[in-house]
Amino acid sequence: MVIYEGHRSVKGEYLYNQVDKNLNFQKHTHCNYEIVFCLGGCLVCEVGNTKYELHNGEGMLILPGYIHSYSTPEESEDYLCVFSTDLVSLFYEKTKMKSFSNTRFSFDGRDNIDILTDESRSIFAKQAVLYRLCAAVFEQSEIEKIDESYFALTNSLSMYIQNNFTKKLKLQDMAKEFGYDYSYLSSFFNRNFDMDFASFVNKYRIQFACELLKNSDEDVTQIAMKCGFSTIRNFNRVFKNETGQTPKDYRSANSSNYGSDSNGGKRIEAKEFSFY
Length: 276
Hints:
The protein has 10 helices and 13 strands. The chain is of the alpha+beta class.
């Protein structure tokens, strides 16, 4: 599936850090930059339809709006940094709606990571690191124009669903909303999002349900309705298909796993159905 992480797209000076072992995360997109470092083993990063293997000492910059995912073939240790475009505003203005021929880079040691994760360091020290990494990509790559209509439609569809998945949604209605032929939009959806429209919407609903089950006291029926399901039976069926567990079992097995992001807010440990 492709998750549109809109919660990462509205915060100024947003900087999020995460260290993982054996990172696996489904396809998703957001309007921020993302840097991944492979600290050991091998990490596969898929951007668009291209897969890149990152090994110890290699990193990669993911540009805003690009669909990407991560998988670990055997084992890996990884560091992720997601940051808003305003932290590298000059770089963003120079390169927005552009593509790079190569966004991989090499690094020595963990000095950059230590600065980015150190809460005592100023935002300016962290910006300096981010600019250095962006400069490394900029200086080694050729810049190419991209298909702006593709990015506009992909992000518009994702954002619309994210904002409305708790309501009754039909692809026919979305086609009218966006001014596209139904068959074209259906084909576009399957080709770029790797699943049909209904399955995609249900992925959002189940992801939201997982968060509510872990972090609220609402009963299962209330959660089902809140997530956009019309019947508890359908909710239970879809939930088990997605997670392998019943909602009750999922709640019992998943206590709250909150830590802090670099803005002092809450973060959730990376799991199959959580935002990282």
